[in-house]
Amino acid sequence: MHVLVVHNRYASAQPSGENKVVDQEVALLRGAGHRVGVFERRSDDIAARSLPAKAALPFLVPWNPKVRAELAARLRAERPDVVHVHNVFPLLSPAVLAACADAGVPVVATLHNYTQICPPGTLQRDGRPCTECVGATPLPAVRHGCYRGSRLATVPLAVGLSVNRRRWWTGVERFFCISAAQRDVLVRAGLPAGRLAVKHNFVPDPDARRTGAGEHLLYLGRLAETKGVRLLMAAWDGIAAGGGAGVPLVIAGTGPLEAEVTAWAAGRDDVRYVGLYDAEECRRAVARSVAVLAPSTWLEAFGLVVVEAMAAGVPVVAAGHGAFVELVEDGTTGLLHRPGDAASLASCVRRITADPVLGREMGEAARRRYERGFSPAVGLERLVEGYRTAIAGRSGGGDGPPPAGNEHTGPRRGHPRGRDGGRR
């Protein structure tokens, strides 16, 4: 199968689960013998642009005609069987969908968050769940400055959501939701249910697995309010006041709360802030953990670090909402705490550090769960199945609204089938 992957890479200064997923899927497909090309832009490149080019960027977020022309030309030259779209913000835009329609190539899109129904993609405002824009115009997001706390920065996202909603619905044959919890939210918001398939992200089998009880608790991820970092600090202070957990807390990552975390950890024996780990350091840190902590306050659409922990035979303590509820079997592969509740998080941490036998049993169960549902073999099967469904046109295309305007709605002209004729 010939696949072209379309992705706007997030800035490398901060960890990105989406970048990791894209790279891992490309490697997986190539390793299985599929031909995979990549059409990408990098947010890192924005810094090198001229001042006028930077000033023009917000106007290109909803629609980038240059990208449409460039991608359409590449599609006509290479004729891939399917295009797999990931992130298009800020340098690609939904114009990539028009390019695929121009060239008559079917599209699969992975929904890594909630940008189809919420301009910043978080369904959260001021640390609390928010659905004001769901099923309505995104004006509340502009009014509240939901993206980076700025009304001006939110406008391009809100405009893009408004003018391209119908194009997403009619231009994508198959949407990959990365959890059933995410799919449920999107269906309730009005996205076409017949096109939304659940495809969990896979994780490569790590070269490091836990062999003992572990030597630390680990938070690994972006240092942001939505990831529950402040909640974790409050819970840990409560644990410390009660005598401690018996093992240190290691925090690895970077983000907007880095200065706050650095100051909080300074001078403490029970906390180590280690900054941004590379991939190998992450694998070793996970494998040495008593448990990995995922206390997110927003409704995570997936939770890559949770599955990475399971792959290493390490249990997880996670917030009991969003995708974590389907990833973590409470009491079997890890523990779920009440979302946003520091005392509940602290209680779960105390329980898992106080009982090494329980921790070992949970770690073993977590590894079995990984092998059943999140291994590369499972990931490859679900990827290829989604591609074949898109190529064959069996996507439930009647679930969306009727096409309008000048969007491509006719048959795909001259599109070559896959090697098996597009049939399973």
Automatic annotation (TrEMBL):
Coiled-coil ranges (or none)? none
According to the entry, every stretch annotated as the Glycosyltransferase subfamily 4-like N-terminal domain falls at 18-203
Gene3D superfamilies for this protein: Glycogen Phosphorylase B
Q: Which UniProt keywords apply?
A: Glycosyltransferase, Transferase
| Source organism superkingdom | Bacteria
- Residue ranges annotated as transmembrane are none
One GO molecular function term? glycosyltransferase activity
Q: Kindly give the SUPFAM superfamilies that the UniProt entry links to this protein.
A: UDP-Glycosyltransferase/glycogen phosphorylase (SSF53756)
Do you know which InterPro entries this protein is assigned to?
Glyco_trans_4-like_N, Glycosyltransferase_grp1
Q: Which protein are we looking at?
A: Glycosyltransferase
Map out region (Disordered) in residue numbers. 391-424
List the EC numbers from the record.
Answer: 2.4.-.-
